[in-house]
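hey so i finally got around to running the thing on that chain from the lab meeting. sorry it took forever, my laptop kept dying and i had to restart like 3 times. anyway pasting the input first so we r on the same page abt which one it is
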Amino acid sequence: MAQIPDDPDLLNLMMADLQAAEPIFQPTKYWRDYQDATLLYLKINGLESIRGRRDGAVTSFGCYESPLHPTRDGLSHIGFSSEEIDTVEAFLRVAANSPKKPILPLGLSIEDVFRARLALLDSKARERCSRARSIYEMDCSIVGGPKSYFEFRDKIYTQNMLLAFDAYIECMVDIDLEQVSTVVEIGAGIGQQVECLKKLHPHLTIIVIDIPPQLYVSHQYLRTVFPECSVSYRETRTGVPAFEPGGLYFLGNWQIDAIDPPGPTLLWNAKSFQEMSQPVVSRYADAFMKWSDWLHLRNLANGLEPQKIAKHDLESAVGRDFYESLFSPSFVQKADRPVSKSSTRDYRIMTWERK
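ok and heres what got predicted. didnt touch it at all, straight out
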């Protein structure tokens, strides 16, 4: 199984560039602890098998591919007691370790269940938005050593990529990506949403904006998956980048003012604006509202819980009311709806289009 290559000099370069940036672009208190933990993790372990390691330093931004069965938190959320969870977990571990054996009810195997999940996602795509591509057109990368994945029709699928495809459907309901030239994602994690969008719509120019070390991980992962179209951070770290159609680029968050994306542009953010303070999000918006034609957010309607806001000094919550006041002068809202339950938290799709 192919691994993600280490480049410690690049990580050091990114971190030095971040430290030289304006204070407002430094990690919030929410992310500083994660940053320290991730840097330590990378120093000790590097990127080898990062998608198969259940370590909080990397699970926090989507690296880990969880087992092909519900987690303890998920089982608790749907009402199982602690004793019942112990029993269910033991059985599900056996099922996951024997994915082809028909040990589930009705003579099904765990692979049968995942084939059914693929069929449901494919059906959802057709029903919700006829212009959406099929999940059967995708083949997920297993670069980076995920332990949990399954194969169907000579293609590979992972849990996280199924979630990315579901998010893709929600976007296509409101925005036809065939009419979009550039997607700018702020806070891409390891980059699996980018992988999904790029594989389904290769024409897209995609610009990843993040703080290191998360930017470093997505840079190394996506450049391994898309070597033919990705451009190294070393080439874009200074000046105004020249974005070519269909390219894949990586920029530090402090470079957002240097962006002039080609063609109709979609700004994508999932779960990270709510982890910033209102002044920080406003600072990003000063830049992206100049060139975005659509804004596609997957965040909590009311922002983080009050206790987390206080703990991490994030001031007022970044949620629906704040977005409305920030975006309404230039954009009209197209959608505000709950997403299908993928966690214990109530995320919503909030989409705006330029007036």
